[in-house]
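Input record (Table S2, row 438):
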Amino acid sequence: MEIPERRSVLHSWCVQADWDAPAIVGGAGARFWDERGHRYLDMSSLSECCNLGHQHKAVVRAIQEQAERLCYATSAWGAEPRARLAELLLEKSGFEGGRVFFTLGGADANEHAVKFARQASGKAQGWILTRERSYHGASYAAMALSGDSRTRHQVDPRDFRVRRVPPPYAYRCPFGSATEEECAELAVRQVGQAIDECGADGVAAVLMEPDAGTNGIVAPERFWPSLREQSRRRGVYLIADEVMSGFGRCGEWFAWQRHGEEGRPDLMSLAKGLTGAHLPLGAVVLSREIAARLENQMLDTGLTYCGHPLACAAGVAAVRAYEDEGLIERSRRLGARLFSALKAMQERLAVIGDVRGGHGLFAVIELVKDRATRAPVSPWPQLHPSLGTFVKRAREQGVSFAVRGNLILLAPPLVIEEEDLMDALALMERLLRELCWS
Ligand code: PLP
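Output record (pyridoxal-5'-phosphate complex):
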């Protein structure tokens, strides 16, 4: 079938000549379908963003109703859904007395979080510390913040006053540690050292993912609370990039909440699950203290579509849907099933070197040639050809998986049925057995 998009659209993260995919024309729950009527179980929520499943009825209705009432109001005027969504986000995060700045997605949320941290701390040129092997977006400043193999050559982080430190990647610990706890401790110590080297007065914030991330690292349990403690002790703000980990993905509204007050950041950036991807929307949530510091200063930033009423109406309906359908708890419960099934699969399949996740419907499996040496099936970030075949064959059998390098990322919509989840894992195991990994 002729796909006109092949000739006219510049597609992300691929060689244009290689792009070859059918058009999605509809969806419901954890499935979507293409123009030929093929149905796919979505094991990655497309870009880890359709947390509510496809075409969630209440969200679609809220968008329709808002479109009838009012499509647009600039930030210089109020808009009812914008106010309601800000209140809901402050309530769900326990950031009472704080404020919310709306953006269009994750990259600009992170850029703005950095602006607010610099302005509120009075460190206009303050350094921002981030991690290697992280992803915070593809705009220039977000690329500088990210330690991502795809974008690192496009920008010099020093131009953006960004300094990166090694990640808490326990399976291949950059510090050679033997345990997750030790890796977490050494990674946090490195952040402390980097702050000391720059001088705490010169560092505006540490910006990191508290749990899940596109680069397949899941931080060890103690990493986030100890990072919080380290940054607080040095008087440096902590920004949680919850773009992927928020809205139930890691079993909480926001992943840091698993650690209670011990994990509370000063700012957090949101997108993806905020509307369940029904419309583009991002947000920065600021603590009461930061909001108070900014209260009487000029805020020299803005976006034409800041707090767009249609997107905010989708956000309000999405938050209600997570709540009404108990999706955060569901993610925690099914996430535990997913994790234990993957751990059992690891016992049976030598190619699975590591299984990470377990806090919600997010897991990563890392494929290796040899369990003992942990040699990856392909050097990062190259995609092993068999993983390409895996994706193709799974699609033919009605399941859509996300892969990257030597990783399979599992992040299905939180509404997925348990039986479907288990069927997809059975297919994954079958295909992993059939394919050649040498
Ligand atoms: N931060 C994280 C953790 C992400 O996973 C992503 C996207 O995958 C982003 C930021 C960027 O979000 P966006 O693509 O909406 O700019």
